[in-house]
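R.M. (postdoc): so does anyone remember the format we settled on? I'll just put the structure tokens first.
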């Protein structure tokens, strides 16, 4: 398990570091058909018929994670980017237009290693 925890932390750290040099100006998420469970290769298709777009890619990902039933601040790269001022991942701080994200919410089945991914902070806590 320590190896998996370190990998979850490393992926989150690397995405946050990459965001400091390659953060796009606009994000568009096509969620017409999403995926739950063992994605991206073996998951189950979920028809959402949505799109999320904005000038804060972290906020866009956070809103999408929220609509999928996940706490965006528990997602490693989103929390790190938020903490480092690269974008907003706290959905209570994000202004949206169009459909209310709460009305579009659906609880997706997580990946089988989701419980380890939630412990991304644990890997380097000591």
């Amino acid at each position: 398990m320590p190896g998996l925890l370190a990998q979850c932390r490393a992926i989150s750290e690397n995405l946050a570091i990459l965001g400091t040099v390659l953060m796009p100006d606009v994000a568009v998420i096509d969620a017409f058909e999403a995926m739950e469970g063992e994605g991206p290769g073996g998951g189950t298709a979920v028809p959402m018929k949505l799109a999320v777009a904005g000038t804060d890619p972290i906020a866009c990902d956070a809103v999408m994670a929220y609509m999928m039933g996940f706490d965006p601040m528990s997602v490693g790269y989103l929390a790190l980017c938020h903490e480092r001022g690269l974008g907003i991942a706290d959905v209570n701080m994000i202004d949206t237009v169009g459909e209310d994200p709460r009305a579009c919410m659906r609880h997706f089945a997580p990946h089988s290693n989701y419980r380890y991914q939630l412990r991304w902070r644990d890997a380097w806590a000591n």
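R.M.: ...and that's the designed sequence above, right after the tokens. Also worth knowing: The mean pLDDT is 90. Helices lie at 2-22, 57-67, 76-83, 114-117.
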